[in-house]
Amino acid sequence: MESNLSKISERRRRWAALAVGLIATGVFFVNICDLVFDCGCASLWAGGAEHCNIHHAEGPRCPWCANPFTAGAGAFVSVAVAQVWLAVGPLAVGLAARVALTVAALPAVGVAIGWLQGSWYGYWG
């Protein structure tokens, strides 16, 4: 029988894995934006959306930057929901795997949602 202390300890490890994933998402989300849309966004420490194509007079507009409260937030929340499930869900994996999965959810889910949203908004066509 598992003790209460080890259950608490396991919960804390799972929440720590989630924290790592969410921090990575907060820091690198704009990099995924540029990866998907090739819009000019850069790392937060290199200007963020300062060079995004939403600032251009013509041409396509990055869906995440042009619609931050719908497309951008929707993509961010989609990544976060996947990370919650991977970090605190019923997977039978250890802490290192949970951390790796939550961090890997950012590019995996971010690219998939970005592709769907870019197609929906007609970004590439």
Question: Overview of this structure, please?
Answer:
The mean pLDDT is 94. The chain has 125 residues and is mainly alpha-helical. It has one domain (9-120). The protein is built from 4 helices and no strands. Helices cover 68% and strands 0% of the residues. The protein is elongated and about 65 Å long. The chain has helices at 4-37, 63-66, 68-88, 95-120.
Shape: elongated
Mean pLDDT figure: 94
Given as residue ranges, the uncertain stretches (5+ residues, pLDDT < 50) are none
Find the count of extended strands (DSSP E, 2+ residues): 0
From N to C, what is the helix and strand string? HHHH
How many helices? The count is 4
Determine the fraction of residues in helical runs and give it as a percent range: 55-70%
Global Rg: 17 Å
Distance between the termini: 59 Å
Total domain count: 1
Largest sheet: none
Strand content: under 5%
- From the helix content, strand content and strand pairing, which structural class follows? mainly alpha
Task: Describe how the helices and strands are arranged.
Layout: H1 4-37, H2 63-66, H3 68-88, H4 95-120
Helix pairs in contact: 1-3, 1-4, 3-4
Summarize this structure as a short list of keywords or feature phrases.
mainly alpha, elongated, 125 residues
